[in-house]
Amino acid sequence: MDRPLKSPGLHALEEAFHRQFELSRSEPAPTLQARLDRLRRLRAAVTENEARFEAAISADFGHRSTVETAIAETLLVLGEIKHAARHLKGWMTPRKVPTAVPFAPARNRLVPQPLGVVGIIAPWNYPLQLTLAPAVAAIAAGNRAIIKPSELVPRFAELLTEAIAKKFDVTELAVTDIDDEIARTFAALPFDHLIFTGSTRVGRLVAEAAARNLTPVTLELGGKSPVIVDGSADIDEAAQRIAYGKLLNAGQTCIAPDYALVPQAAVQPFAMRLQGHMQHMFGTDPNNADYTSIVSDRHYARLERLVADAAAKGAIIMQPAASNDREWKARRKFPPTVIADATPDMTVMQEEIFGPLLPVIGMRDAAEAIAFVNGRDRPLALYWFGTDSAARDAVLARTVSGGVTVNDCLFHFAQAYQPMGGVGASGTGAYHGEWGFKTLTKFKPVFYRSRFNRLADLYPPYGAKVARLEKLMRLLS
Asked: Which residues does the Swiss-Prot or TrEMBL record annotate as the active site (predicted)?
């Protein structure tokens, strides 16, 4: 039987990879000016298509708040580009490293070099930001890159392909098709580095495929990011800030607060204030243009099952409307939902929510909250609210997470000088700013021998001269 022909998309992917791979070996280190030019072209691709990107993303979601797209996607990408361009010369400069005394007056240097070809597998929830922020790091580090967008945002993927193709040669930066064959093949290509953003389940599959080529990976995953509301917190202020963090992009955010641990006596007051702030921000009308739709019917149905399971197991469900309300469901807008008195046996507490549901669980004290967090996979983010610095520092010292925001949510992600990355089941590796440059760079150690150094004394035939040198080295060690 004849083997089936490769799809045009798969053929284009393999061709782009091989061309980039060959050039990364024959022309391994783009100049500062070449990298700055690529960053400039990437910025132009974003700014010239900003309104079109907003429209495409909104169409893919069913409805996406244009303000959220601008703030959480476009402006973050443009900020990454500006930051990289401003600091790139310093990042690229070889670094002096001290030389051990026995080898003086030789010199050591760390010389930053591009890894080669970087693969980027992007998610659907922030398709512009989580596609192009890794690309900024790849370009700044001097790499060539291939982007694989999510199949859940086809309009955006088509526009991104068009915009990048107008500004870049395929040997510099390329965007693939989104069909199933490419999804199965992409991670198995022998990239020099692979960046994946998505679920922990798929992340494991990506890591397995990459491991066959010994391809290093940066995995930006998710999980259940907790909020700890300390007894010293202003309950109303915490509820307002948590409501915003939860409902941005309708909760479809990998670092969204996933559940709240509050003092037992504060469960009901906190839940009521949380519901009040949710309704103040987004109202009770599904036509509200500020409130984003759930990306697909399948994801909407999954959220309905989580709420139904929690209700069946005794939770108090607080919503402005039922999720099966025709007006909400027709627009795929899931009503903001507080799940008070949640318990660990509920499905909503056993899987990442990725939607506008917030379980609230009562804790006897701060120690119980810390134990609750530590009894689960290490989260991508952790949020703490309160004024007691000793209680805050105890949480910071006794828990491990990808990142932390104190007295707010999400904002540690937007810090260009801080790394963004998970730990354990929530991911491995990091990027953003210089951290992205470092992740996608090989810092090659180079030793420059001095002609005045006595290293020749180590050569055979051994004798008294080696004994004297060995004695000196032991003395200095």
From this structure: 220
